[in-house]
Design brief:
single chain; mainly alpha; 2 domains; two-stranded parallel sheet; two-stranded antiparallel ribbon; 4 strands
C-alpha cells in the first residue's frame, strides 16, 4: 500500500498561526498602543504558515482522491432526491437501531481524534490504495469562530488546522470526522459528510456508529422540517427514540432564537461561496448528504458495496 505523509506542522503550534497573523497586530495596538511588536509576531507566524503550507502542498502532489461517482455511483451533481415518505421510513429505522444500540460511553475528544483519524485513513485507503497520513491535532478555538458564528467546527484548508467549538454530545465524533476529511483534502462539504459517515458507521465502535446514525437522523429531520423548530420537534416526537437521544437531537436541531443580521449575512456569504466552488450550497450538509446516501444505496454502478449505507 502506498503511503503519503502530509506533515501539517502548523497544526501543532500552541496557537493557530492564522489567529496570530490576524490578531497579533490588533492585540499589540490595543495593549501596547503600537503595532510594531505585533507586526514582528505576524511576520514570523506568516513565514511558518507559508512554509508549512508549501511542504504540505508538495507532499499532496501524488494523492489520488476518491472518484465519488465511480466508487459510490453518486456525486454532488448526480443525486437522486429522496421523497418525504422515504425520509420518514429512514428516520424510523435509524431511531429503532439507535435505541437498541444506545451507549452512554463518551470518548475524550483527543482520544477520539486519534482513532477517528486512523479510521478515515483506513477507509480512504481501502478505496484509493493510498494511506494519506495527516495530523490528529485538534483545537478548541480559532478566530474562524468569530467569522462563522453558526459553525460548530472548522478546518483551515491551507494549514489543516481543525477546531471544535463546543460539546455536541453524541454527534461529536461525526463533527471531528467531518473536519478531518477536509484536512485530508476533501474540501467539498458533501464529500466530507459522506466519508465521515461511512467511515464511522462501519467502524465497529459503538460510540462512532451511534454518532453516524445520529448525524444521518438529524439531517433527515432538518430536511423534513425545513429547519422550522416547531416542525422539527413534531417530527422528532413521532419517532421511537430513547430520551437521551431525543435530548441531543433537540439541542442541536433548529433554534427558536432568531439569528442576528450579521450571522444571517455571513451564512448567505458562505452559501454563495459553496455554490461558486461547485457545490449545491449549505443544503449539502443535510439534503445533499442524505440524498447522496440514498443514491449510493440504489446505485447499479457503484464499485463500493451498497451495504455501507445500511442504517
Amino acid at each position: 500500500m502506498e503511503r503519503i505523509v502530509i506533515p501539517q506542522k502548523a497544526t501543532h503550534t500552541p496557537v493557530a498561526l492564522a489567529d496570530l497573523i490576524v490578531g497579533a497586530p490588533m492585540a499589540s495596538r490595543l495593549l501596547l498602543a503600537t503595532s510594531g511588536p505585533g507586526q514582528v509576531v505576524m511576520a514570523g507566524a506568516l513565514g511558518y504558515y507559508v512554509g508549512s503550507a508549501a511542504r504540505d502542498w508538495f507532499a499532496r502532489r501524488g494523492v489520488r482522491p476518491i472518484d465519488f461517482q465511480a466508487a459510490f455511483g453518486a456525486d454532488v451533481s448526480t443525486l437522486i432526491p429522496m421523497t418525504n415518505a422515504q425520509r420518514r421510513e429512514e428516520c424510523r429505522g435509524l431511531s429503532e437501531r439507535m435505541s437498541d444500540a444506545w451507549t452512554e460511553e463518551k470518548i475524550p475528544r483527543e482520544e477520539a481524534a486519534v482513532e477517528i483519524n486512523r479510521l478515515l485513513t483506513r477507509f480512504i485507503a481501502n478505496i484509493t490504495g493510498q494511506e494519506i497520513i495527516t495530523s490528529d491535532a485538534i483545537r478548541g478555538f480559532t478566530i474562524s469562530r468569530i467569522a462563522f458564528p453558526f459553525a460548530i467546527g472548522s478546518c483551515d484548508a491551507i494549514s489543516g488546522d481543525v477546531a471544535i467549538f463546543q460539546d455536541t454530545g453524541i454527534l461529536e465524533p461525526h463533527v471531528i470526522a467531518h473536519e478531518f476529511c477536509h484536512r485530508k483534502g476533501y474540501l467539498k462539504e458533501l464529500h466530507a459528510q459522506a466519508i465521515a459517515h461511512l467511515a464511522l458507521r462501519t467502524s465497529g465502535n459503538a460510540v462512532f456508529v451511534q454518532a453516524a446514525r445520529a448525524e444521518r437522523l438529524q439531517r433527515n429531520l432538518a430536511v423534513l422540517s425545513g429547519r422550522d423548530p416547531r416542525l422539527f420537534d413534531l417530527e422528532l416526537a413521532s419517532l421511537p427514540l430513547r430520551s437521551e437521544v431525543r435530548k441531543w437531537l433537540h439541542q442541536y436541531g433548529p433554534s427558536d432564537e432568531k439569528p442576528s443580521r450579521v450571522s444571517e449575512a455571513l451564512r448567505k456569504v458562505y452559501d454563495q461561496r459553496m455554490r461558486l466552488t461547485g457545490q449545491n450550497g449549505i443544503s449539502d450538509y443535510d439534503r445533499g448528504f442524505t440524498d447522496f446516501l440514498h443514491t449510493f444505496r440504489h446505485s447499479e454502478t457503484a464499485t463500493q458495496p451498497r451495504s455501507l449505507t445500511d442504517w
